[in-house]
Design a protein that fits this description.
The chain is mainly alpha-helical. The protein has a single domain, classed as Zincin-like (2-Layer Sandwich), CATH 3.30.2010. It contains 6 helices and 3 strands, in the order H-H-E-H-E-E-H-H-H. Strands 1-3-2 form a 3-stranded mixed beta sheet. The longest helix is centred in the first third of the chain and has 21 residues. The chain is globular, with a radius of gyration of 14 Å. The mean pLDDT is about 85.
């Protein structure tokens, strides 16, 4: 993928994250806006060595919101979206890409809010 092509997908993902953030209820939007969203192509080798599957579309790292006040964790909360993995999944379809970015962002934001996989499944964010 060319740099211009990559930049275009990043721009679309960033727009979708902003649109999704803007659609959240006010209090949730305030909390969620404090969590930076990073865009990477794929999980790094170091991430894979730490157990992250190479087909992972998104990852929440850091301390969940509910534990923030009592934790001495050094890693700040952040969401990482792996855009080439998402693109592979959606076969480059722009509309489906935007939906998957939204779904993956909400899934990882759910982890920030303290939801586990079953809690996310209950909310159709699995």
């Amino acid at each position: 993928m060319t740099q211009a092509g990559w930049d275009n997908w990043v721009r679309m993902a960033d727009q979708e994250v902003s649109r999704t953030l803007g659609s959240l209820p006010r209090q949730l939007r305030v909390e969620a806006s404090a969590v930076p969203v990073l865009f990477q192509r794929r999980p790094s080798r170091a991430m894979e060595r730490d157990g992250v599957d190479p087909d992972t579309m998104g990852l929440f790292v850091g301390v969940p919101f509910a534990e923030e006040m009592r934790s001495g964790e050094d890693i700040p909360a952040q969401v990482i979206l792996f855009l080439e993995v998402i693109l592979d999944e959606v076969n480059g379809d722009e509309a489906v890409f935007r939906r998957e970015v939204r779904q993956t962002y909400l899934h990882e934001l759910g982890h920030f809010l303290g939801l586990d996989e079953s809690g996310l499944e209950e909310r159709d964010l699995g």
